[in-house]
Amino acid sequence: MLRVGCRSHSLKSRSKCIQAVHQGQFWVGNEDLEHLIKALSHLKPVQLHDSEGMPLLTRREEDVVRLVADGMKNREIAQRLRVKEHSIRNYIYRIFEKLGVSSRVELILYMFSHRDSGS
């Protein structure tokens, strides 16, 4: 849904929105992204496997992915898993490398797109 008429947006912001949508792009605000991430986080967990049926992620990496999908920050994830924040950064880096993604949003979309295939 396009919300160009929102009074809280500046004229410049509305103009950028119209141009982006006209070019076929999405215009999504932070609040909308938060709703999307919350909805995606309630999907069943994904078990990703390689072509030989071996898991791509360790159990701990899967835990980190679920907490990222819940919208938690590195510090919060570290506290939940009782590890250092630096460890969480390392886990996320390895997860990104293994799955070929480069951001949390890409990670969540990747997980969403693979939820039924199991691969």
CATH class: Mainly Alpha
Provide the β-strand percentage band: under 5%
Number of helices: 6
**Spatial extent as radius of gyration:** 17 Å
Count of DSSP E strands?
A: 0
**Spans with pLDDT under 50 lasting ≥5 residues?**
1-5
Order of helices and strands: HHHHHH
What percent of residues adopt helix (DSSP H or I)? Answer: 55-70%
Write down the overall mean pLDDT.
Answer: 78
> Strand pairing plus helix content: what structural class?
mainly alpha
Which characteristics define this entry?
globular, 119 residues, Arc Repressor Mutant, subunit A, 0% strand
Please render the helix and strand layout as text.
Blueprint: H1 11-22, H2 30-41, H3 59-69, H4 74-81, H5 85-99, H6 104-113
Description:
This protein is mainly α and 119 residues long. It has a single domain (30-113), classed as Winged helix-like DNA-binding domain superfamily/Winged helix DNA-binding domain (Arc Repressor Mutant, subunit A, Orthogonal Bundle), CATH 1.10.10.10. It is 57% helix and 0% strand. It contains six helices and no strands. It has helices at 11-22, 30-41, 59-69, 74-81, 85-99, 104-113. The protein is globular, with a radius of gyration of 17 Å.
Quick structural summary:
By secondary structure, the chain is mainly α.
